[in-house]
């Protein structure tokens, strides 16, 4: 809703804001709370101090630790220090900067475990350790598509349409490794990684012969040669919009793995052309799609987005066995027709 959007825009470190609302006593009858009706930015830190990071003024005490700080070392370790080896707050950071790699690995392990615990609370049936790493999600999704739709269905027409497929990992798994027809729709040029080049070289693909492994990741021209050999599927470098949809109407199934802003375009396409579909959403982009609502409330998190997409398409929701955003909304039959396109 509007207040939640305003909070995300205004409640930034260093901003000076004016809060409109009324004071109340909490449930204990003692702790004062404020019921906020409006947030107003008086001064934005990024505008008043361009290029500078906010630092706590001297003499100002650190805030009371929030509830997450009480859950163990996972919340006492600085995530910037763990992920980047440095922290822009320096000695003023309230979290630990432990140089020992062991503590970093422990922090990562605890964080992954906590995320899996939250996933289980949201209905994920795969357990704490029963999931693949993110590096295996394309392979996992491809196997799930084959088991769910069947190769006979996936091969019909022009084959699988992978929208906003990024580097083309899903198409790699479906087309290059399993021989299924695919089309990748992605504005950016597809890029193979070193493991994929190595796999192709093991198959004696002509375009890769006599190329050292250390130089196997350095050219669009080489990728084009591989595509001409039939190892890579067709890529259409365009935005997936209603103006381009007619070119893809013969596909068998339309899919999207973390397609970001293209998520609802996939739904619209499937409903317009009567196509089976499978979408694994990730980012919500609530400000870009304010029309999305669940129970008369704006969609602002991934759980609400999954519910919205399932309700709109009469789709089924399942959990894929890999870490991260792994809920897939799908239908093996055409969804109900679309009468109004969301642009």
Provide structural commentary.
This protein is α/β, with parallel strands linked by helices and 343 residues long. Helix content is 31%, strand content 16%. The chain contains eleven helices and eleven strands. The chain has helices at residues 2-10, 45-48, 79-84, 101-121, 137-149, 151-154, 169-176, 194-202, 220-228, 263-273, 302-313; strands at residues 16-25, 32-43, 160-163, 182-185, 234-236, 253-257, 277-280, 293-294, 297-298, 316-319, 327-331. The strands form three sheets. It has a seven-stranded mixed β-sheet, with helices on both faces. The longest helix has 21 residues, at 101-121. The two termini are 20 Å apart. Mean pLDDT is 81; it is low at 64-74, 210-218 and 339-343.
Write the layout of secondary structure elements.
Blueprint: H1 2-10, E1 16-25, E2 32-43, H2 45-48, H3 79-84, H4 101-121, H5 137-149, H6 151-154, E3 160-163, H7 169-176, E4 182-185, H8 194-202, H9 220-228, E5 234-236, E6 253-257, H10 263-273, E7 277-280, E8 293-294, E9 297-298, H11 302-313, E10 316-319, E11 327-331
Parallel strand pairs: 3-4, 3-6, 4-5, 6-7
Antiparallel strand pairs: 1-2, 7-11, 8-9, 10-11
Helix pairs in contact: 5-7
Assembly form of the protein: single chain
Q: Which overall shape is indicated by the principal axes computed on the Cα atoms?
A: globular
Encode the helix/strand succession as letters.
Answer: HEEHHHHHEHEHHEEHEEEHEE
Structural class: alpha/beta
Round the Cα radius of gyration to an integer and report it.
24 Å
Give the rounded overall mean pLDDT: 81
Spatial strand sequence of the major β-sheet = 5-4-3-6-7-11-10
Report the total helices. Answer: 11
| Biggest β-sheet description | 7 strands, mixed
Strand content: 15-25%
| Low-confidence residue ranges | 64-74, 210-218, 339-343
Measure the end-to-end span.
Answer: 20 Å
- Assign a percent range to the helix content: 25-40%
SS elements, strand count: 11
